[in-house]
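It would be a great kindness if you could assist me with a short task in structural biology. I am sending you one protein, given as its amino acid sequence and as whole-number tokens for its backbone shapes. I would ask you to consider whether the tokens describe a fold that such a sequence might reasonably adopt. The full record is reproduced below for your convenience.
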Amino acid sequence: MNHSVSSNQSMCKYWENKTNLALNASFEETLSALSEGEVPVVCVFVYKNAIITTARNQINATKNAPRHAEFVSIDQTLYN
């Protein structure tokens, strides 16, 4: 097998595993949002191959329109 093909396949597998980590976390957060009556919009922050925060919209639960998933994630990152 050509070395560059093997290297490319290894790189693709590496990124596939990293992507699956974030996608699985976002899917779990989406299911939680749906079960709580929220719009299933989620945010997952990943840094250096580790999930830092996962969050979902909290608009309905808090009756606070700006509680979008990305703002909740930022708050979690800064204050937790």
The chain has one domain: 4-79. The first strand starts at residue 42 and ends at 47.
